[in-house]
């Protein structure tokens, strides 16, 4: 059986992106970042092979594509508080016209332009 080990995000500035994602998710660098690569692990992940997904930040030199073909959904019990916290860390709101009236998500982008959604979940449930 496969598990997601690492989700790789393309960035231009490793220190800036690493600061954002470690503060946003409470992740920590697995090791010393290089000029073009760092892996961030959940704090509770004891070994690289653990089941918790990591995030890698990679400088590739390729431009971002819009709309992106993949993005993260981040679940929040208090969406508005998390959106405000992420904006204070450097996230930006995406001016997106595609929200339905009953949308339970907000589209943001990180300091590098990688889009992600903050999804209102209430108490976390197995179906989300």
From TrEMBL:
<dbReference type="Pfam" id="PF18029">
    <property type="entry name" value="Glyoxalase_6"/>
</dbReference>
<feature type="domain" description="VOC">
    <location>
        <begin position="3"/>
        <end position="121"/>
    </location>
</feature>
<protein>
    <submittedName>
        <fullName>VOC family protein</fullName>
    </submittedName>
</protein>
<dbReference type="InterPro" id="IPR041581">
    <property type="entry name" value="Glyoxalase_6"/>
</dbReference>
<dbReference type="InterPro" id="IPR037523">
    <property type="entry name" value="VOC_core"/>
</dbReference>
<dbReference type="InterPro" id="IPR029068">
    <property type="entry name" value="Glyas_Bleomycin-R_OHBP_Dase"/>
</dbReference>
């Amino acid at each position: 059986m496969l598990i997601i080990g690492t989700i790789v995000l393309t960035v231009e500035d490793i220190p800036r992106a690493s600061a954002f994602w470690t503060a946003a998710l409470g992740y920590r660098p697995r090791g010393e970042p290089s000029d073009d690569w760092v892996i961030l692990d959940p704090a509770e992940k004891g070994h690289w092979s653990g089941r918790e997904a990591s995030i890698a930040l990679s400088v590739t030199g390729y431009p971002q594509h819009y709309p992106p073909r993949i993005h993260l959904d981040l679940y929040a019990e208090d969406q508005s508080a998390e959106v405000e916290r992420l904006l204070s860390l450097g996230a930006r709101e995406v001016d997106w016209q595609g929200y339905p009236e009953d949308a339970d998500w907000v589209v943001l982008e990180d300091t590098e332009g990688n889009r992600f959604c903050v999804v209102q979940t209430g108490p976390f449930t197995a179906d989300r």
